[in-house]
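Field log, afternoon session.

UNIT: design team B
ACTIVITY: writing a sequence onto a fixed backbone
BACKBONE:
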C-alpha cells in the first residue's frame, strides 16, 4: 500500500508546529491535493484547525491508546484516496509518556515508516541550530529525519546562515522557513489553542497562512519526501468491523461551540457498529430531537458559554425528561460539567445547569488534571461492567463538589506515581466523568453503549 506521508515534528512544545501544519495543509489543499491530516496524541483542538484547512476530518494517532496495530489500522483507513497524509506530532519529537517513547511522535513515525520533517524555532539561534538538529538526527537512527523547517526566522540573511550551518554540519536538508510574524500565530486560551469552531474569519486567515508558506517553504520538496515513504503492509482490521452494520439506533451527539471534543474515529466506529449519529446543539436547539435512543455529550468549553447554556432552559428540560425515561446518557468532562446542578465561572458567578448530577462544578485558576490515566470501573454502567480496566486522558481546570456520598462513583483513576482516586458518577443509565475515552481503544465499551441504546429503544417502542 503506497501512501505518501510525512510527520511534522518539533524540537519541543511551543515551536509553532500546529500553525505550520495548518498552513501546509491549507497550501497543499489550495494546490489541488487531497490532504488527510492527522494529530499524534490525544489532542482535540489542533485537529479542528487541520480539518478547516484540509476540508477533510483530521484523525488522532495515539499509540498509548491504540497500540501499533491500531495506529496502522486507523491510519490506513483514513488515508484511502489521499494524495498526502500530513501528521502533526505532539510536544517534542521524542517526548512520550514518562521518560519512555510510548505515545511519542517518534514512535508513531516508526510504526508508520513515515519520514520526519523537524520544526525548529529559530529565534535567537545561529550555528547552534545545527547542533540541535544533529542531536535529533542521531538520537534514534530508526527515525528518518528527512528535512527541517525553520520557524520565526528574522529574515533572508538569518535563514541563509541557519540553512548553511544545518545542511553543512548536521547533514539534513532545510526545506524552508516561516517568518517571525505575530499575526499568524494561533490564538490561545486556558486549555491551549482557541478551537477552530470559535475563530471568526477563519477562511481568510487560512488563506494568508497558505500564501506565506507557499512563498517560503519548498512544497514540491516536501511532497517528494512524502512520496519517498516506503509501502505500508496491509493488515486485517482489528477495531472496525469488516462490514458496517445498518443503523439500528439513533444516537444524539451534542456538537456545537461549547461541546466539540470528540475523536473522529470514535464517532466513525459508533456509526460502523450501527449508530445513526444525530447532531444536537445545547446552545441553539430548543429541545432534544425526537426518537433518540441515546445521547453522547463530549468535552469542550461550557465555561465560555454559560449564559447561553443556562438560558436554553427548554433544552435542559428535555434532557431531564430523557433521563427520567431511562435514555442512556454518556458525558465526558465538559459534558459532565453541564449535567451538574450549576457551574461557577472564574469570577465566582454561578449559572444553573441541567442538575442531573447533584453537585456544583467550579472553575479553578490552576489546572486540576492533565495526562493519560488508567481507570478501573467501580460501578457497572452503560460502557463497562464493574472491574473493567480502561485507558483514557484528562485535562481540566474545574472540579465538582457537593455530590452526596451515596451517589455511586464511576472509576478509580490511576496515574503513574499516584494513588488511585475516584472520578465520575453513575446514576441509572447516566455515566458522567472527567475521563476522555477513545472508543477505538475500547470497542467493547462502544458496543455495550449501543446495546444499552438498543434496549432502551426496544423498551420504548414496546410499551
Amino acid at each position: 500500500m503506497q501512501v505518501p506521508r510525512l510527520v511534522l515534528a518539533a524540537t519541543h512544545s511551543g515551536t509553532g508546529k500546529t500553525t505550520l501544519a495548518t498552513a501546509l495543509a491549507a497550501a497543499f489543499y489550495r494546490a489541488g491535493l487531497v490532504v488527510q491530516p492527522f494529530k499524534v496524541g490525544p489532542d482535540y483542538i489542533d485537529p479542528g484547525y487541520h480539518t478547516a484547512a484540509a476540508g477533510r476530518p483530521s484523525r488522532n494517532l495515539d499509540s498509548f491508546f491504540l497500540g501499533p496495530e491500531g495506529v496502522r489500522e486507523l491510519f490506513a483507513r483514513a488515508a484511502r484516496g489521499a494524495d498526502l497524509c500530513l501528521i502533526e506530532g505532539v510536544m517534542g519529537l521524542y517526548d512520550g509518556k514518562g521518560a519512555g517513547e510510548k505515545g511519542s511522535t517518534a514512535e508513531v513515525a516508526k510504526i508508520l515508516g513515515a519520514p520526519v520533517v523537524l520544526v525548529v524555532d529559530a529565534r535567537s539561534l545561529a550555528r547552534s541550530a545545527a547542533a540541535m538538529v544533529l542531536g535529533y538526527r542521531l538520537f534514534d537512527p530508526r527515525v528518518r529525519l528527512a528535512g527541517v523547517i525553520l520557524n520565526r526566522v528574522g529574515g533572508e540573511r538569518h535563514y541563509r546562515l541557519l540553512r548553511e550551518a544545518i545542511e553543512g554540519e548536521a547533514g539534513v536538508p532545510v526545506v524552508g522557513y516561516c517568518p517571525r510574524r505575530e499575526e499568524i500565530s494561533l490564538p490561545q486560551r486556558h486549555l491551549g489553542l482557541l478551537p477552530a469552531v470559535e475563530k471568526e474569519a477563519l477562511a481568510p486567515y487560512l488563506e494568508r497562512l497558505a500564501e506565506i508558506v507557499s512563498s517560503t517553504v519548498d512544497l514540491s520538496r516536501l511532497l517528494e519526501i512524502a512520496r519517498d515513504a516506503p509501502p505500508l503492509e496491509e493488515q486485517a482490521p482489528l477495531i472496525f468491523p469488516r462490514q458496517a452494520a445498518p443503523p439500528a439506533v439513533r444516537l444524539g451527539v451534542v456538537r456545537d461551540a461549547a461541546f466539540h471534543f470528540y475523536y473522529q474515529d470514535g464517532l466513525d466506529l459508533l456509526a460502523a457498529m450501527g449508530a445513526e449519529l444525530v447532531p444536537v446543539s445545547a446552545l441553539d436547539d430548543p429541545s432534544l430531537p425526537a426518537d433518540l435512543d441515546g445521547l453522547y455529550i463530549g468535552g469542550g468549553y461550557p465555561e465560555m458559554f454559560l449564559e447561553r447554556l443556562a438560558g436554553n432552559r427548554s433544552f435542559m428540560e428535555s434532557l431531564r425528561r430523557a433521563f427520567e425515561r431511562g435514555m442512556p446518557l454518556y458525558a465526558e468532562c465538559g459534558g459532565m460539567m453541564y449535567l451538574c446542578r450549576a457551574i461557577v465561572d472564574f469570577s465566582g458567578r454561578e449559572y444553573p445547569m441541567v442538575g442531573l448530577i447533584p453537585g456544583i462544578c467550579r472553575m479553578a485558576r490552576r489546572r486540576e488534571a492533565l495526562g493519560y490515566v488508567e481507570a478501573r470501573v467501580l460501578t457497572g454502567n452503560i460502557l463497562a461492567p464493574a472491574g473493567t480496566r480502561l485507558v483514557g486522558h484528562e485535562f481540566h481546570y474545574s472540579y465538582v463538589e457537593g455530590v452526596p456520598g451515596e451517589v455511586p462513583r464511576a472509576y478509580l483513576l490511576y496515574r503513574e506515581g499516584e494513588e488511585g482516586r475516584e472520578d465520575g458518577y453513575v446514576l441509572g443509565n447516566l455515566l458522567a466523568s472527567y475521563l476522555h475515552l477513545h472508543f477505538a481503544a475500547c470497542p467493547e465499551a462502544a458496543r455495550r453503549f449501543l446495546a444499552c441504546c438498543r434496549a432502551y429503544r426496544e423498551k420504548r417502542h414496546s410499551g
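LOG NOTE: The chain has two domains: 5-227, 249-462.
NEXT ACTIVITY: expression trials, pending approval
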